[in-house]
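I can't quite decide. Please look over this sequence plus structure tokens:

:::
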Amino acid sequence: MFRKFQHIDTAFRYIRTFSLVLVLVCATLSCLSLYYSYRQVRHAQERVYILAGGKALEAFAAGGRENLPVEAREHVRQFHQYFFTLAPDDKAIEATMKRALYLADHSAKQVYDNLRESGYFYNLITANISQEITIDSVQVDTGQTPYRFRCYAHQTLLRTSSVMTRNLITEGFLRPVSRSDNNPHGFLIERWTTLENKQLHTKPR
């Protein structure tokens, strides 16, 4: 009879141990599930989505220093696109030049004034010449302020009877300034000069 009670006591201890382990496992799994659920919800709340063309695109935040070379190159590209993309229309030329001059200092304004005084824009309009630019590459040295840059590009002058291609190399410096609607990248081009602007070839249309 004592042996029977001894078996019952042993079985009770096994059941109690098994139940305790089961409770601990369930509690651990519940805590892990709650933790990962909270983490997922928090991660999802930190995401920002932008609607573009009917599609939701996830936006990622990055520090200013990480984007510095990219924004500097884009500023140089944008300035050259505005300055050298010209239509045979005085109002269109004035509008694009105005946007370009927001991105640079008096060195660009001086080039614009010289072109206007020499009749360059008048000749484009009277001859119905369209001028376009293709940026090949932009090199920016972000080692020290102001940042030195060099831009390599090709100009295309579309005439009624021919197409002229010119090689263009310019350089200057980028000074960080406050961002604005007219200057979204927050740079100002200084001491802008043209190193090369020579004709490569002309072909009939």
Residues 64-204 form a domain with the Nuclear Transport Factor 2; Chain: A, fold (CATH 3.10.450.230). The mean pLDDT is 85. The two ends are 115 Å apart (CA to CA).
